[in-house]
Each structure stands twice: as structure tokens, then as C-alpha cells.
Amino acid sequence: MNRSALVFIALGIAVLAGLFLLLRPEAGPPGAAPAAPPEAAIKPPPGALPGEPGPVPPGSEPLPDAPAMTAEWVVRQGRRESGPAVVVLQAGDEVELRVTSDHDDELHLHGYDLSMPLRAGQTGSLRFRAGHSGRFELELHHHHLELAALEVRPQ
Questions:
Q1: Cα distances (Å, whole numbers) of residue 71 to 87, 100, 149
Q2: Of the ranges 16-20, 40-44, 92-96, which is most confident?
């Protein structure tokens, strides 16, 4: 290999190393505990019934008593019996999603990674602030049912 090729490779490695050091994610303060995975902060505590308040995720603010928007669905025999197919919001809106199913299931909002267990015959409620814009699938996991799409438009 000729000398100019070796110099070029060495410069490339030096530039990549410099970019890595410059752009790497910053670690927390020394001795700080690692952050808990987001799922641990969002799922209801063990034994909680649907609709009971769970822990507030780090960095979130508690919601006021009444959300800006509420959407409700009824699911029977694995099919949406009532409720909107699409829910449209603005980023920053407070929303409550209420689901009643005739079978135990798990409600999951993709993109936000929010989930909660549903118990047959009981209405489950998922409240949050829509902070991310985009189109997100709301589904029942056990029935593999896309219940609705949540469209969050930028402010």
C-alpha cells in the first residue's frame, strides 16, 4: 500500500474518532443511578385496576381533572362495536382514551409505548399529554385488533 493511502486512512480514522467524541450522548453525573426503562414508569402498578391512576412518568406533568379530549370505544367479540376509527389531536393536547371490552386484553398505543391491561366488562382509561406528532396505532394486543389511529398534528 502506498504512503498517501496510509495517510488518508489515518486521517479518516482520526476524523471519525473526533466526531465520536464530539457527538456521543452525554452520561449523567458521576454516581447517578441509570434511568429506569420507560415501560416501568408508564405501566400501571401491579394489581391496579384499569382507570386507576398509575405513576407519573419522569419528566411528565400531572394532568388536570378534565382532559381536553376523550375518545371511547366498545369492543365485542374481538371487533370494534363503537368508537372512532381515527382520533385527531394537536400536539400538547391532553387526551383520555376509554375502552370497554368483553374479554380481558391489553391496550397499547404504539409510538408512545403506553399500555394497560383491560378486564372484561370494565372500562379502562389511558390519560396522557400528546407530545409527539404523527400517526400512531391504538391496538388490543390479544385480539390483534387495530382499534383506531391517533393522529397528532404539530402545533
A1: 7, 12, 11
A2: 92-96
